[in-house]
What does this fold into?
Amino acid sequence: MSRFLSVARAVAWRSIHNTLVSPAIIVPSIVFPLFFLAAFAGGLSKIAQVPNFDYPPGYTAFQYVFVFLQSAAFGGVFTGFAIARDFDSGFARRLMLSAPRRSGIIAGYALGALARWVVTGSVVTIAALAAGMNVPGNPEELAGMVGIGVMVNVVAGLWACGVAMFLRTEQAGALIQMPVFVVIFLAPIYVPLHLLTGWIHSVASVNPATTVLEAARGLLAGSPIDVGLAFVLLAAGAVVMGAWARGGLASAERAG
Amino acid sequence: MRNRSRHRRGVAGDVVAELAGHPALIEQIGAVGRRSITRTLRQRALLVFPMLFPLILFAINGSALNAATRIPGFPPVSYRAFVLAVPFMQGALFIAVTAGIDLARDIESGFFNRLALTPLSGPALLAGQLGGALVVALIQSVVYLLVGLATGVGIASGVGGALVLLALSILIAFGFAGVGALIALRSGSGEAVQAIFPLLFVTLFLSSASIPRPLIAVTWFRDVATYNPVSYLIEGIRSLVITGWDGRALALGFGFAAALVIITLGLAGSAMTNRLART
Amino acid sequence: MSDPKAAIVVENLVREFRKGPRAVDGIDLEVSPGEIYGFLGPNGAGKSTTVLMLTTLLPPTSGTATVGGYDIVHQGTQVRESIGAALQEAALDPILTGREHLQLQATLQGIPKVTRAARAQELLERVGLTEAADRRVGGYSGGMKRRLDLALALVHSPRILFLDEPTTGLDLQSRTALWSEVARLAHEEGMTVFLTTQYLEEADALADRVGIIDHGKIVAEDTPAKLKAEIGNPTVEVLPADLSAGDAFADALSTFGAPARSGRGSLTVQLPGGEAQLAELVRALDAANLHVASLHLHQPSLDDVFLAKTGRKLEGSADDGDAEPVAAPARGRRRRGR
It folds into this structure.
């Protein structure tokens, strides 16, 4: 266990350090969620006037939750990019040779992703509060919302980790990103589920991301809904993606 | 001395003057253009993904935001018709990046020096290099239009309007290709070109891409969208789809597109001259 | 006074970069038509910067140069029409085929349309790429890329060819093939070749004259044979079959000079009369009934020339196993294999 933790700590440290010293990495990861918040909450705020739009905290809060979780997901995705770059540069091979417990490498990357997201998530939250967002939820409910964010980050990070380790090239970027993007955007991101129509309503109704998003929105609004189900789905996602990532690691080990 | 007189003429003037004086130059520009087009068509991933991504967003947003049509004051059209203009803009942004990366790779690999040792002039070399961008713009625009029609969007301005729409979108794409070329020539780096991609997408976010400008409730956002030229590019295309023949929207759309082309290609031409640095 | 018929004339050429030392620090040289001029120096000596200036891709800070009779600063277009260049990077497009490269180059150089295809085919045959002509260059080996690079430089039949480290990274077979073609271009077609290299054997094998550049200055210039002769005469290293006969060997060899003894029992002596004295030396040992275990003739190398002029060994020497202490060599120093 101690070897696992030491490997994880070392990999996480490198991941966090490289992000902090590279403006090209840290700046977009902070700036982009802010732009999404501005574009959606600012540009589309009149959607709150649509009949039957019934999210009491308001449209800023409605969009904030989406951007909060999206930044968590993409924080995990960017970790996959970093892993793919490490394989392209050969550094991943050095890690594989040096680490006594290689599963610690995955844990380290995941920890690094989480640490980066703590920064991003905090910045987005501060920006939304500064824009006057209402927060009816109590501290336990808000902690639950953050917990959902953490799980989203872990699930997306493990997915990205697996893809990067299976393909071991930066060209895998699109393949890492697109499925996460599609899953997120096929949830009710602009309006509540009951205001969606047509095929997108059908898809969103069965999309697990919808349950997760609505649970987080409910927690922020102080009206929890399907929170247990959301955490079960995320836990299942973590298990599945953990196995996926482990499979990627095994593939990388076989490749040498 | 020679460079100063060239700058007074501008890039387009340079090319025309050179073409008039050197018939063989047309052939040379054509050769560079053919290479650019060949490279584009042989890298299918670069062609398909930038085309597919805007269409995926169009499909999702076109349905997901349909409720926005119930906002008081929203034009009496489907949201899909309203937002059809956006893929054309997104496609143009992708073209900016791929055109820039192509040129940056030539600089990084030294192929640019090989071209510099030939009689081809800088502005003519730039025109040829952007040939691939034009072909991609044409293919993308036709695909977006056909997808729009297939999903039930009608073009209010008719067949003629559809052709004008294609012309405007190609002009816009050419202008953005100039942005990519400018960054590539100034920096000589593919990474620098890729770094501008997020910035270009920000200009799309802070515009009237998703909702009519009068319906943007947040004042600062509405002001930014009003001053953002991208809003007028989108509204120019959009007017042909949902309004018909709106002279003002078209004048603004074509005007900003032409200004974009002139400015970016002018700056890129100057950067090309500096990059060539031939005696 | 420069020779008016010289293909390349360089006078006090300087190139400074901001925030850096002078990359080229006042060099003078002349290259005659049909000559292969080897420009030899370590990494960072200024070779490629010189080539970039002479091919008009980089303006000089000061000084003058003419290439093919045209001034590199004021007559850049004419210079480019007269020269072909294969620069340090192979500079190829991995997505195009070899044939497409040649056709593009031919079009850009203004070769008439009716002759382009034939010219491309001729060059492909000349560099041995006919079978790979219609494959994408991305799949070519390093040697194939260099050959294509050379073919592209020859499309418009230039009078003067610039080759900037053309064989770096190539295997021995590819390198030798390229040397043969360069030699043929110069000797059969009368092409002037300006070749930069960090490989001693390349300069030795190909160049009619060699200019050695270090820190932006030319430190020596002459034919390879004369440069080496400046440093010293060849030496012979003799290892007696019977190590106890060392004194007898020393006596026999003393007619040629004072032999130096090594710790391993071998004796080294200079041949003041050059290689021609080797037979005499062997006869002398035979006459004294002395049996030899081994006998090696060592010629001074361009590396010795560089070391004598600069106090340093040339980097990138192919025979790096010979690394020796950094000091000016005594004459007749033991060398292996060159």
